[in-house]
Specification:
With 68 residues, the protein is mainly alpha-helical. It contains three helices and no strands.
Length: 68
C-alpha cells in the first residue's frame, strides 16, 4: 500500500514537472539566462531532467521576473 501511494505521489509531482520542463527547455530558459539563447539542442536536452525535478523552484524564479 505504501509503495502504491509513493508511486502515485512521485507521478503526481513529475507529470506537471515534465510538461513544465519541456516548455522551459524550449522557451523559458532564455528568460532566466539570456546566454542560453544560442545554445544547441544537446544543452537543452541535458537540462531537461533537472528542470523536471526542480520545476517549482524554476517556476517561482520565472514568476518573480528572472534570475535572482
Amino acid at each position: 500500500m505504501i509503495r502504491v501511494v509513493l508511486v502515485w505521489a512521485i507521478s503526481a509531482y513529475l507529470a506537471p514537472g515534465l510538461l513544465f520542463a519541456l516548455w522551459f527547455c524550449a522557451r523559458g530558459v532564455v528568460r532566466l539566462d539570456p546566454v542560453a539563447a544560442g545554445s544547441n539542442p544537446a544543452f537543452r536536452l541535458l537540462i531537461l531532467p533537472g528542470a523536471a525535478a526542480l520545476w517549482p523552484v524554476l517556476l517561482l524564479k520565472l514568476a518573480r521576473g528572472g534570475p535572482s
